[in-house]
Design goal:
208 residues; mainly alpha; YcfC-like; globular
């Protein structure tokens, strides 16, 4: 296998896991907890030796690999189209963010501050999620590019759900940045979909 494509597939799985959690929260009012922990934890893995270290292990990315495979495959439905739109918007926001190094520094500093809360409460505690949501709201939310999350109003209006969505969007941008750093480019999302799906499915089979 192509190691570079493998790494890019892992980062894309991280991105799609983030948007899957956003979609779950917006449409169901809750989300899968194990993938959420992997996704939030990725924000604090700032000096990985390899791409997979950002997410812990392949098992922690299984939700993202499934959603990536479905979204890039021929059987994509309305939900997958929605998640693909979120993912492409996050890639666009990451491109914008890279042009604002001072904002990147602010985000990095505040994530380091949030690390103390993680040590006390754990990755998915509401205090940690709200802290991360605040980072997203104070920085990335100020760009003109907006991510309009579609879901049920009764779920979106719950404060904890809104915070979880913003925290997952922040983690999605982290994965988009990782993908870009290891050679990912927007054109590949169009012309290399088949190879990415093949890679994602092979990774999923290795977990069986």
């Amino acid at each position: 296998m192509n190691q570079n494509l493998d790494d890019q597939t892992l980062a894309l799985a991280g991105l799609f896991q983030s948007v899957s959690l956003v979609h779950q929260t917006a449409t169901r009012g809750q989300c899968l907890q194990d993938p959420l922990e992997t996704t939030i934890k990725s924000l604090f893995e700032t000096n990985p030796d390899r791409t997979l270290d950002v997410y812990g292990d392949l098992y922690g990315l299984r939700e993202g690999l499934k959603v990536l495979s479905r979204s890039f495959g021929n059987q994509a439905g309305q939900a997958e189209a929605q998640m693909l739109r979120y993912a492409l918007n996050l890639v666009q926001l990451e491109t914008k963010l890279r042009k604002h190094p001072e904002m990147l520094d602010t985000i990095g500093e505040r994530i380091e501050q949030a690390r103390r809360s993680v040590e006390h409460f754990g990755y998915t505690h509401p205090n940690v999620i709200k802290n991360l949501a605040g980072i997203y709201q104070d920085t990335i939310s100020n760009f003109r590019i907006k991510i309009n999350v579609n879901g049920h109003r009764q779920f979106l209006e719950i404060e904890d759900n809104a915070a979880r969505i913003r925290a997952c969007l922040l983690a999605g941008i982290r994965s988009a940045m990782l993908w870009r750093q290891i050679g990912g480019r927007r054109w590949q999302l169009i012309f290399q979909r088949g190879k990415v799906v093949e890679n994602a499915n092979a990774m999923l089979r290795s977990l069986e």
